[in-house]
Amino acid sequence: MDIVGLIQLLARERRPSPWSARHRLVEVLFPPPECVLGTEEVLIALALLVVAAMYSSVGHGGASGYLAVLSLTSFATMEEVWLKQQAWSLNLIVAAIAFYHYQRAGHHIPRITTVFVLASIPMAFAGGYFLIEGAIYDVLLSLTLIWASVRLFRVDSNFDEESVENLPLSQAIPAGAGIGLLSGIIGVGGGIFLSPLLLLKRWTTPKTAAATAALFIWLNSAAALTGSYLSGEWLVEIDTIAPFGSAVLIGGFIGSKLGADLIPQRAVRIVLVVVLMLAAARRVILLV
């Protein structure tokens, strides 16, 4: 073979064929599934979707459920601050959707929400600075949630506007402050504490409690996340929040829509009992 022929042969070998070029373009635009989400991440996203649907049906953001799911996966090895910040971020998505649906359905009473929000936000902001660990703390919190679940399950199911009592500021303000502080410390939005309080005191109906809790949770999560950020530790990861946030967005939309418009008041209360039991179970699982 002469030199000219050899050069032409090498040129043909270096020139990409149309098929290989298209292949590379497809790989760039549509990478293989394993490059986007692994098997564990897909299962986590599905679990988070279910959790978001259940929690949002009672106006909750679902942080305690998200922490439970993440604690059962490889993400359990992450720092507690990392887990709390991801949970707060997901809370913001779901609580916003839940409040939108419950408010649009006419279940929100601004006066009630304002009292608890103003009392809780400064304390949630402060709680975001603290990091408290300990088995005794987990046991006490689990027992508290179980107690609230039992009380709610046994309470009179006759929840209507006539049975609701006036909201005393002397009790509501300290309660809101305490819930805000606990929310910031634990890494939740506070709905698992506020909703049982509102119903056990008969200050609202179940759906009004859901609307109040949704806005309360969103603002407390934002305050706690801000406090955590100002403390010098910002560990929110877009690569993690994007797929998981999409999952809770879908679950939150479905659950809050059902809770606000289709599920009766008594059913909302029963779902809340289940949510509280799941939150308690999460604390127990962490102790095992």
Low-confidence stretches: 10-36
- Shape call: globular
Question: If you compute it from the alpha carbons, what radius of gyration comes out, rounded to the nearest whole angstrom?
Answer: 24 Å
What's the SSE pattern?
Answer: HHHHHHHHHHHHH
- The helix-and-strand class reads mainly alpha
Number of helices in the DSSP assignment: 13
Whole-Å distance between the termini?
A: 75 Å
Number of domains: 1
Strand content: under 5%
In round numbers, the mean pLDDT is 75
- Per DSSP E runs of 2 or more residues, the count of β-strands stands at 0
Percent range for helical residues?
A: over 70%
Main sheet characteristics: none
Explain what the structure shows.
The structure is a single chain. Helices cover 76% and strands 0% of the residues. With 288 residues, it is an all-alpha fold. The longest helix is centred in the N-terminal third of the chain and has 25 residues, at 80-104. It has one domain (37-287). The chain has helices at residues 3-14, 18-29, 33-36, 39-56, 63-71, 80-104, 110-127, 135-154, 169-186, 191-200, 206-230, 238-262, 265-287.
List keywords for this structure.
globular; 288 residues; mainly alpha; single chain
Helices and strands in order:
Layout: H1 3-14, H2 18-29, H3 33-36, H4 39-56, H5 63-71, H6 80-104, H7 110-127, H8 135-154, H9 169-186, H10 191-200, H11 206-230, H12 238-262, H13 265-287
